[in-house]
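Contributing: when you submit paired examples, paste them exactly as shown. First protein:
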Amino acid sequence: MPGPAYRDDFVRENEHTVDDTSDVIITYDDQIVRIKLNRPAQLNALNESVRAKIAATLNDLMERPDIRLLVLTGEGRSFCSGADLTTSSYPKVEGSWSTRRNRTATWQRVLEQLDRIPQVTIASMQKHVVGGGALLATACDFRVISEDVVLRIPELALGIPNVWNGTPLLAREIGLSRARDWVMTTRKVLADELMQCGWAHRCSTPDKLVEETDALIQDLLAVPPAALALTRSMTSALGRAQSGMQLGWADADLQQWSLTEEEYKQTIASYTNRLKK
């Protein structure tokens, strides 16, 4: 049939292809797909172009049972500094209320895609892990960090709630009490605490991060494919079954509302001005 033939042609033509000039580098390598955030000058800040490329790759992976692992990394000295506040991590939103809330939920849907693809997902991180970058990592099955990692959920300090279903996601992974602490205080969280609370699964010195990540990859690839895929599906379903994960249905409305408030506009203007100094 033409559908599968087209997909096979697409895979053969694009396997192992790397575009070093792109803001996201996608590499298919045998049983692994690697997604690298590639805006090092901006500390891999997230914008709409980055989101669209990640979403397209995740859509493709839904039909790629031959790919067993997804590895998410960031180029340069930081994993991800969160939303690009010098532009916007969201597309311009116009139209009816239903249209606006759908378009505002684009990043939330990326996190949901990460949760539902059949591949086991790994985030490998150095230095800054901030805001939306922290939530991308939290949506992954495994998290490998270097000892210099600093995580922060700064949204409340910017005058907006923590959306993208982020607070239920954090509570699922580290418990409600600690999630409340991280989100409400917006404080910096260091590697020791990330390991102690179970958010991170492996930790290494910065120069050994790739080696530590590769060791985890080899551990996972050593597991028979069907058993690993079934367990990935099971743990993903268990995570979604937790009641808090159903509470993100109104996050798009909260985000739309908060972005129109004068308090947010003043706070974000002050914050971006400090960044420029």
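Second protein:
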Amino acid sequence: MLFYANACREYVTNGPLVELAGQPNLNPLNSAFAKLTAPIPVGMVYAMEKKKPQRRGRPSRSEGGVKARGRLLDAAEALFAERGFYGVTTRQVASSAGVDDALIYYHFKNKSGLFDAVFERRARVLIGARHDSLRAYVANRAHVTVEGAIAAFINPMIDLSQKGDRGWKSYFALVAQIDNTPWGSEIIHRFFDPNVHELIDILQEALPGIPKRDLFWAYNFLAGSMMLALSETERVDRLSAGLCHAKDLDAVRLRLLNYCAGGFLAMVTAERLSGRA
């Protein structure tokens, strides 16, 4: 602004209207120049420097940040588990996370991208835990069994639900929910198939001569029981009038492993006796 004032001073002093300088009332720039060159109060200058126009549009990285992204994932995970993908809006997720909904589009592009990120975040942890558990089981046994293989496959899920942060319970409820949808099964297929094939390979070693077809059928039934148990819906609480508690994961672990292993063995034995295996 001072540069502009000096330029105006030069124009008035040396410009084409210099001949009017001695006639203040005839010079049209005199009053404007007087206002322009008047000193500005210090407080006003400070306020002008401090006040910056609010930027709209894409948030900055510092505004988004790792913490805000994590809060969005946590909020979305809980809401998707409770209401399903179609029952949740991005505005509801942002409100629950305490951030502007523009951050969802900045970090995840859209609601589908947010859902994929929610699913992938814990899937990577679970995949690694299962892989390590199955490998450790095989490495520490001279002979593998159906019971041992199934325990090595299921136990990491129960451990994460019991000892991990509370988001794991929402996550397992979400997995159980989408596993019954065509689009959800594609996500399950993309992430978890390698672990399933690891289990099938160990079971084939434990049950030599059983066709892989029957092992996959048996796994299909195991998966349904496993996900129902981990979703902790408490239906068994009501059915049993309080004799059973879905959230008692120690009780769940013992019974689920016995049930799944027993079902596996019963099915393949029946197939073998019938001559189909």
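If you have annotations for the second protein, write them as plain sentences, like these:
DSSP finds 13 helices and no strands in the chain.
The domain at 121-274 is CATH 1.10.357.10 (Tetracycline Repressor; domain 2).
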